[in-house]
């Protein structure tokens, strides 16, 4: 994008870029400044434009109730945690939820550390492939859930239902196929689910 209007326009562009960079999933933002602006002079200092607030999406309690119902009714629910769990500092909430259900947590390469590697419910993606074969519900949290080499979902197991929770709506779009897609902060969503889903007795 090109901004015109001298120093104040550049000031506003930089402030807006930083706001966009820190809203939702962290991502790079580029600023293009034309030569006429770079070569211009201004007589007054920039106004110090303030970036717009980086608001998180409001928590959709109705959608979370639907997700909780799906988890409660699943035979073998499991979680797939991506880097968004770490970015939201949602590891403790994920741990409480997983332990409440006795549900395995598969961590993507970017999500390693969401659960301790020593935790009995924590799995790498390699070990998690066996879980995908048997789980009837996978809740994907804070992950783009796409193969890095081709535009296909990370897993499309037959008979497996998927739920997506992500702060970035673009990371839940097709070709991913979910029965529910919730745009939400990972920590807020997991904390709510950890308090509302039914506790399971693990044998």
Proportion of β residues? 5-15%
- Spans where pLDDT lies below 50 across 5 or more residues: 1-7
**SSE string, helices as H and strands as E:** HHHEHHEEHEEEH
Helix content: 25-40%
User: What value does the Rg take, in angstroms?
Assistant: 21 Å
Average the pLDDT over all residues and give the rounded result: 84
Cα shape: elongated
Strand order of the largest sheet: 3-2-1-4-5-6
Total DSSP helices? 7
What's the total count of β strands?
6
Helix/strand/pairing class, anyone? alpha/beta
Major sheet: size, sense and barrel closure? 6 strands, parallel
Question: How does this model look, in words?
Answer:
The N terminus is likely disordered. The chain has 7 helices and 6 strands, in the order αααβααββαβββα. The radius of gyration is 21 Å and the shape is elongated. The protein has 203 residues and is an alpha/beta fold. Strands 3-2-1-4-5-6 form a 6-stranded parallel beta sheet, with helices on both faces. Helix 3 packs across helix 7.
SSE blueprint:
Layout: H1 7-21, H2 35-38, H3 61-73, E1 77-81, H4 83-87, H5 91-101, E2 105-107, E3 122-124, H6 125-134, E4 137-141, E5 161-166, E6 180-183, H7 186-196
Parallel strand pairs: 1-2, 1-4, 2-3, 4-5, 5-6
Helix pairs in contact: 3-7, 5-7
Question: Which tags fit this structure?
Answer:
203 residues, alpha/beta, 7 helices, 6 strands, elongated
Structure, briefly:
With 203 residues, the protein is of the alpha/beta class. 34% of the residues lie in helices and 13% in strands.
